[in-house]
Write a structure and sequence with these properties.
2 domains, 5-stranded mixed sheet, PEPTIDASE_A1, Cathepsin D, subunit A, domain 1, aspartyl protease, mainly beta, 7 helices
């Protein structure tokens, strides 16, 4: 099996490559927190191209296959195993046994919050750029629920978690790329740009030119997940004593949301006091997460969602029990503010302010100030 990504605008060097990501806002929700970033991969011989979300919160490559007749599958590009001369149909996730003449094989069901997919195991050539290929296993969907898969602009999901979250030893595409020498080490950096900016994911190293200042490193606390310990919540530079027994924070490139424990989100909702009519948005405090002794700070522009003339605190309540929780999940709004680096070799996550070439377009903070002056 080999994995391949083929895109224009690639940056690369010995043992590393940067892949450009596309951004598309999903309709039906607040524009401020609905972007999805995705890129292209190819699978098979000859290569078949797919758009995928690069998801640090999951561990497998998931693609719809030709046999899936659900509407969610038919709206997207489906993998056709019959058109690839390097495909191996696998009985299960744990060994190299190929499907026999009786067709008997395992079927796995994977849930995604509001929906689920069921699929079978396949091995084939997968590439990140034409020169970055490996042998890896993936899950080919035979059923997909309409929510969320029917409405998304991408075909599948490429899991970038640590290998422990994969269905088996050969399911981590990045790990397979390292073992086959395509990239030098299991490390990658993520830059999410604003409208009009390039976005990218870099495999094999991180790019200092995407950062302002140096990285703050924090050790991974739960094997498999890119999550680290968080000491407290910080509001306008003051700790709030909301995590007396320590919280956790997971960095998730596969979600457009911010989320946190319900009891803490409720207290923050009262503390931040975001006016529903957006009248106080420009006067709101900063909100930070205390990680490795440093406050990773968000401005109101990052943590307030605006839909028309209605503003809300854009942190969803989500309760995750120990040992993973209490857990905050940082998606797109955080990832636009911070350049993040994921280092499997040393089991750590790095954070640095992202170096943007321009501010976000049509900032709702600027709109709010104009509206205040007009009152």
């Amino acid at each position: 099996v080999a994995c391949c990504l083929s895109l224009s605008g690639l940056y690369s060097g010995p043992g590393w490559i940067s892949v450009p990501l596309r951004r598309q806002q999903l309709g039906g929700r607040s524009v401020q927190h609905t972007s999805e970033y995705f890129g292209e991969v190819t699978v098979g011989t000859p290569p078949q191209s797919f758009l995928v979300v690069f998801d640090t919160g999951s561990g497998n490559l998931l693609l719809p296959q030709e046999d899936c007749k659900d509407e969610a599958c038919r709206r997207h590009t489906r993998f056709n195993a019959h058109n690839s001369n390097s495909t191996l149909q696998l009985v299960d996730a744990d060994n190299n046994t190929q499907v026999g003449s009786d067709g008997s094989r395992d079927v796995v069901t994977i849930t995604f919050g509001t929906g689920e997919m069921s699929g079978v195991y396949i091995r084939d050539r997968i590439c990140i750029a034409e020169s970055m290929c490996c042998e890896a296993d993936f899950v080919a969907a035979i059923d997909e629920s309409d929510e969320p898969f029917g409405a998304v602009p991408f075909d599948g999901i490429l899991g970038l978690s640590m290998p422990q979250l994969g269905e088996g030893a050969a399911f981590s595409v990045v790990d397979r790329l390292v073992k086959e020498g395509a990239i030098s080490k299991f490390i990658f950096g993520v830059f999410f740009g604003y409208d009009g900016e390039e976005s990218e994911i870099t495999f094999g190293k991180f790019r200092r030119e995407r950062m302002v200042g140096s990285l703050v490193w924090a050790p991974v606390t739960v094997a498999g997940y890119w999550q680290v310990q968080m000491e407290d919540v910080v509001v306008d530079g003051e700790t709030q004593n909301l995590c007396p027994n320590k919280c956790q924070v997971a960095v998730d490139t596969g979600t457009s949301q911010l989320a946190g424990p319900e009891n803490i989100v409720d207290r923050l909702t009262d503390k931040m006091d975001v006016a529903a009519d957006c009248s106080n948005v420009h006067a709101l405090p900063t909100l930070g997460l205390l990680v490795a002794g440093r406050s990773l700070t968000l401005s109101p522009q990052d943590y307030v969602a605006r839909s028309g003339n209605i503003c809300t605190l854009a942190i969803m309540p989500l309760d995750v029990p120990p040992p993973r929780g209490p857990l905050f999940i940082m998606g797109d709004p955080f990832l636009k503010k911070y350049y993040t680096v994921y280092d499997q070799t040393r089991a750590r996550v790095g954070f640095a302010l992202a170096r943007h070439s321009q501010p976000p377009r049509d900032s709702f903070l600027q709109r709010s100030r104009k509206e205040d002056r007009a009152r």
